[in-house]
Amino acid sequence: MSKKQGIGTRCVQAGYNPGKGEPRHIPIYQSTTFKYETSDQMGRLFDLEDSGYFYTRLQNPTNDIVATQLANLEGGVAGMLTSSGQAANLFACLNLCSAGDHIVSAGNIYGGTFNLLGTTLPKMGIEVTFINPDDDEQTINAAFRPNTKLLFGESLSNPGVEVLDIEKFARIAHSHGVPLVVDNTFPTPVNLRPIEWGADIVTHSTTKYLDGHGVAVGGALIDSGNFDWEAHTDKFPGLTTPDESYHGLIYTKAFGKLAFITKATSQLMRDLGSIQSPQNAFYLHLGIQSLHVRMQRHCQSAQQVAEFLVNHPDVAWVKFPGLPGDSQYDKAKKYLPNGSSGVLCLGLKGGRDFDNHFMDSLRLVTIETHVADCHTCILHPASHTHRQLSDAQLRAAGIDPGLMRLSIGLEDPEDIIDDLRQALEAAHV
Ligand SMILES: *Cc1c(COP(=O)(O)O)cnc(C)c1O
């Protein structure tokens, strides 16, 4: 075996190895359907006896190139692309849970995922208990029930940029016979690979750094192949007992380590149809090819901006895992030695009006419901993304009502700092 290539090389090349005369860049298979020669050939696909493409609602070759690349980057065995990060987290849950089941999740997660787990899944009969990820193992253990099917957390929480103690979470999940699902959107596999620390399933909003330019909404689901479903047959009947919609096929028996992703593709994608368009998969692939270079710059610039802000008299506090003294600093040194992401949070001293005046005075930094792309942008969750949550719910989700989320882009850090400085001055007028 040759030495495993570096993450940068794999960002550029993994998943696609064209032959003689083939396109250097991945082709976009802009086709809903695929041709076969005999009725039997087509029939075997529908029985999952042969693998192959038949309809882009389930699978498309462009998507599979990029899903294979992401699985490679994360150190997993297989992946799939979804239409959004929301769909990726939904699929991770529905691939393991049915009505009557239960999920334990960190409480400090992205607002959209908080709503999915806290509001929509309960309507489908799946209950969720939110826990404080910093609680000790005994306290977190107490949230588990016999019908718990997974433990969920974000490797770097959005927007609070808190680092998940993945080893602790993996230990807890495995002691209850369930997989750990980690949303790795913010660090990306360049800065952190949760599977190396014991996570079983990794999800992504590829809309963020993986795309990196703010052009394509998308998501991804990656399986480590490490979780032994058959050791817990009673918990995961969907994977270990016959699927009558495929003539009684058993995913773990037929597909081994590929069982989880095969079930998500052939059952959930078939029935729920949340696939990423091949065009968006192409944009995503373009983004991934420079991911390693961009992440380094995002992290370095965010470090400079965080150091500027923490010393500014109008700034009450800054949260950035790379600042010595930050509550996340020690965990970041362990899990994110090359940097966390370009996202930081801050609170100002002047109150709500000052906050608004500051945001309205920014010129280069724009107000956007986005994060983690090449443009520097700012968002005030209490007024924008999380406005449906009360102050108490915000605090429960680890969000200070005065918190502003700043996502440092790829502009020159000096220009970003100049803009923040002038807007802080202008807010006084
Ligand atoms: C944005 C985001 C999501 C949701 O992804 P979409 O692509 O917007 O559906 C999920 N998790 C995290 C951590 C996110 O930042």
**Ligand names:** pyridoxal-5'-phosphate
CATH architecture level-2 label of the largest domain: 3-Layer(aba) Sandwich
The low-confidence runs, each spanning 5 or more residues with pLDDT under 50, are: none
Class computed from helices, strands and strand pairing: alpha/beta
Walkthrough of the structure:
The chain has 429 residues and is an alpha/beta fold. It folds into two domains: 7-287, Aspartate Aminotransferase, domain 2, CATH 3.40.640.10; 292-426, Aspartate Aminotransferase, domain 1 (Alpha-Beta Complex), CATH 3.90.1150. The protein has 17 helices and twelve strands. It has helices at residues 7-13, 39-46, 61-74, 85-94, 111-123, 137-141, 166-175, 188-191, 237-240, 251-255, 259-272, 278-288, 291-310, 329-335, 352-361, 391-396, 413-426; strands spanning 78-82, 102-106, 127-131, 148-154, 180-183, 201-205, 219-223, 315-319, 343-348, 366-367, 377-379, 404-407. The protein has a seven-stranded mixed beta sheet with strand order 1-7-6-5-4-2-3, with helices on both faces. A five-stranded mixed beta sheet has the order 8-9-12-11-10. Helix 5 links the parallel strand 2 and strand 3. The chain is globular. It starts with 6 loop residues before the first helix and ends with a helix. The mean pLDDT is 95. Bound molecules: pyridoxal-5'-phosphate. Pyridoxal-5'-phosphate (PLP) binds at residues 84-86, 110, 112-113, 154, 158, 183, 185, 205, 207-208, 217, 219.
